[in-house]
Amino acid sequence: MAESRRYISQEELGKHNKRGDLWVSIQGKIYDVTDWAKDHPGGEPPLLNLSGQDATDAFVAYHPGTAYQYLDKFFTGYYLQDYSVSEVSKDYRKLVSEFSQMGLFDKKGHVTLYTLTAIAILFVVSVYGILRSDSMWVHLGCGALMGVLWIQSGWIGHDSGHYKVMSSTGINRFAQVLSGNCLAGISIAWWKWNHNAHHIACNSLDFDPDLQHMPFFVVSSKFFNSLTSYFYDRKLNFDSASRFLVSYQHWSFYPVMCLARINLFAQSFMLLSSKRRVANRGQEVLGILVFWIWYPFLVSCLPNWGERIMFVIISFSVTGIQHVQFCLNHFSSNVYVGHPSGNEWCDKQTKGTLDITCPSWMDWFHGGLQFQIEHHLFPRLPRCQLRKVSPMVQELCKKHNLPYNSASFWKANEMTIGTLRTAALQARDLANPVPKNMVWEAFNTHG
């Protein structure tokens, strides 16, 4: 029976790696996911990034065992020639199976309930303080509470994008739109589109959107070659203006993080107004409109423009802590240029991530990002299970000589600023000329 199977080589599989022709290998079987790409819940980028290669580890990481039954309709009838599984992949898949048997993917604890309760209390207190108090300090304190609210809503949005935080798909979707679109003004569709691409192509300079912050930040001098972003489908030009901004990025990092929400608002608007296919676009737009009704109205209830501006700045700045947290896990980690490799899933995920060491009572502050290595290897694991599996992940890394890097929150900040400073000083090196413009000339004219 085995002799009757039809086989194709890895080289032949690799030819099916572009829009309109997407094939992947899972457990040695070849699947044509070309037509499925537009309907894929995780978005098109993960399939584009892993097409033409073995995607078994990524599939196992992102899908429960029940997902295999849906693969048959995509089966091409071909099998991958000389298909083999590395020792690290065997142990990784064994861990996924063990976690599943232990029920860890289903045991979500009460994190979501506590977080939603905290969000509700923060919202009520903030609104009450603005409407019922005449004190400027109370108003500014409410702005800080609003920032904390957005941080906690961000954790809910992040979790719900990876697994069901609620009892059903419908309620889970409601939690996503409520926490992301309605309360924070950020499209959950944009978040999933961006974040899934980041997970699959972790720390690839040209495929991972979470490292593509030109002209404000670069984490590697390789960006000076004006790399092409395969996520945004455009060239990231390192011109004179970029050189100037990057040259001082280690000083501008925290101020920019204080206003980083503006970029998330803009990204949400651009996606929802684009011709790109967006699932449940109506819900997404409606949720965004809800935010842009209640938040400006709340700000308008403040007595004068000075307090209104300060309220917005404080609420944005407090939320900037979360934007910093997103950067700490990856900015100082290993980066590379090129296509993500499905056969190097564990290697790429561990090299591109950094854990933050903290006591268990601080887990609420980090929202699961303190176990970034565990989260990247097992993205479906509920936040409350990450600390439990950490020793097993460390054992996997030790056995297969994979990095398991961790640092304190303050040390991670120091490492991130160090990475930015190194790239900034390299950008100032005029031995790497770039086309000059009037802005560059103005800032570099002497006497």
Automatic annotation (TrEMBL):
Belongs to the fatty acid desaturase type 1 family. Pathway: Lipid metabolism. It comes from the Eukaryota. One of its GO terms (biological process) is lipid metabolic process. PANTHER family: DELTA 8-(E)-SPHINGOLIPID DESATURASE, FATTY ACID DESATURASE 2. The chain crosses the membrane at residues 111-131, 137-157, 252-273, 285-305. InterPro entries: Cyt_B5-like_heme/steroid-bd, Cyt_B5-like_heme/steroid_sf, FA_desaturase_dom, Fatty_acid_desaturase. One of its GO terms (cellular component) is membrane. The gene is LOC115970363. It is found in: Membrane. Residues 5-89 form the Cytochrome b5 heme-binding domain. Keywords: Heme, Iron, Lipid metabolism, Membrane, Metal-binding, Oxidoreductase, Transmembrane, Transmembrane helix. It holds the Pfam family FA_desaturase. GO terms for molecular function: metal ion binding; oxidoreductase activity, acting on paired donors, with oxidation of a pair of donors resulting in the reduction of molecular oxygen to two molecules of water. It comes from Quercus lobata. It is a multi-pass membrane protein. This is Cytochrome b5 heme-binding domain-containing protein.
